[in-house]
Amino acid sequence: MSEPENCPLCQLAPTSLLWSDAYCLVIPAQIPGIGDFCRVVWRAHVREITDLVDADRHRLLNVVMGVEEVLRDLLRPVKMNVASLGNQVPHLHWHVIPRFQDDPFFPDSVWAAERRPPGVRQALSEDVLRTALEKRLSSVTKTPL
Ligand SMILES: [Zn+2]
């Protein structure tokens, strides 16, 4: 079992953040051919969403949905994949992944074997993502729970 002192999500460098508040962090991630996707990380080292009280569950899911909306608006994917696995890093986090019919794994998950070579999808600039996330998520976190 992972403990906070050797957990990579407890040791994130502030420079890797796209957005954060007192409860959640949003960090960028990339898989060749997928382009941008995001991970939404709960700040505290907990294993499962059911370890959180109701208000915190809602707060986390509102951030996950806000990130999904931002990626949909910016990238116009054919589908969004949202997943919470944590088998390798058991610190509560969600993957928010835009999917495209020509991505290397479609229609399988991004963790499946590649079906085709990666394309030339351009990554968004982190500044574009940061600006869009700040605009969308500021209203999420100001909403009374
Ligand atoms: Zn952790």
Secondary structure: elements and pairs:
Blueprint: E1 19-20, E2 24-31, E3 35-42, H1 54-75, E4 79-83, E5 93-99, H2 126-142
Antiparallel strand pairs: 1-2, 2-3, 3-5, 4-5
Could you explain how this protein is built, in words?
The chain has a single domain, classed as HIT-like (HIT family, subunit A). Helix content is 27%, strand content 21%. It has 2 helices and 5 strands; from the N terminus they run βββαββα. Strands 1-2-3-5-4 form a 5-stranded antiparallel β-sheet. Helix 1 (54-75) packs antiparallel against helix 2. The protein starts with 18 loop residues before the first strand and ends with a helix. Zinc ion is lined by residues 4, 7, 9-10, 45, 91. Residues 4, 7, 9-10, 45, 91 line the site of zinc ion.
Summarize the structure.
This protein is of the alpha+beta class. Helix content is 27%, strand content 21%.
List keywords for this structure.
alpha+beta, single chain, HIT family, subunit A, 5 strands, 5-stranded antiparallel sheet, binds zinc ion, 145 residues
What do we call the CATH topology?
A: HIT family, subunit A
Q: Ions, cofactors, ligands: which are bound?
A: zinc ion
State which percent range the strand residues make up: 15-25%
Structural class label: alpha+beta
Largest sheet: 5 strands, antiparallel
CATH architecture annotation: 2-Layer Sandwich
